[in-house]
Amino acid sequence: MNDGFCEWWRKTEFGSRMKRTIFENKRQADCWRHFHQVAGIQDGTPKVMCKQCCHVLHHPADGHRGTSSMRKHIQGPSCRRESSQGNDIRTLLQEKAHSAPQKATFTHQAWIEGVISFITALRLPFQLVEHPQFHALIKIARLAPSFPEIPSAYTVRRQLREMVQERQQSLLLRLPKGAKLSIALDC
Ligand SMILES: [Zn+2]
Asked: Which residues form a coiled coil (predicted)?
């Protein structure tokens, strides 16, 4: 078995309870040729996966079950029926990777509902949707080659502070030496 797998498994709920790594045992029975040794992702429960049809069974070492269920499986009708697909773990994973997170398709209805949810959840004024800054923001996001990273509140605050300081400096540089500036704020 792969070292990385065994290392991960020893830290799982199941693996940490076992004194030995059951995956390291040399397998004598012929039916082992047809199975991969795998484990539940949540708790590390050991399993075996049929190389032909990817059906998952209990691992014989989990509760000393023996290999009869594995033999029965590879000779049984359910395995042969699906074996024509010739799946192994790698192709299965590739298929899953391709079919996994499908890009959500855009619909006008979903977009309108998204805008409504955004405004109502944050209790924003309806006028927001007509504000040029809102339109400009959407346009900038559309220019991104992939989904743009949304900055954290901390980053926004820090960047704002930096922007204000930069603009203050550039304004001051534009003023002639010795000039005085009077600012009146109405807030
Ligand atoms: Zn099978």
From this structure: none
80 C-alpha to ligand 1 centroid (Å): 7
* CA of 114 relative to ligand 1 center, distance in Å: 44
Give 32-57 as a DSSP string.
GGGEEEEE-TTT--EEEEETTT--EE
Output the CA 17–ligand 1 centroid distance in Å: 29
Query: What are the pLDDT digits (tens) for 5-35?
Result: 888 888 888 888 887 777 766 777 888 888 8
- Residue 170: count other Cβ atoms within 10 Å of its Cβ: 9
Task: Return d(Cα 132, Cα 140) in angstroms, integer.
Answer: 12
How remote is the CA of residue 35 from the centroid of ligand 1, in Å? 8
Q: Where are the beta strands (DSSP E) in the chain?
A: 35-39, 46-50, 56-58
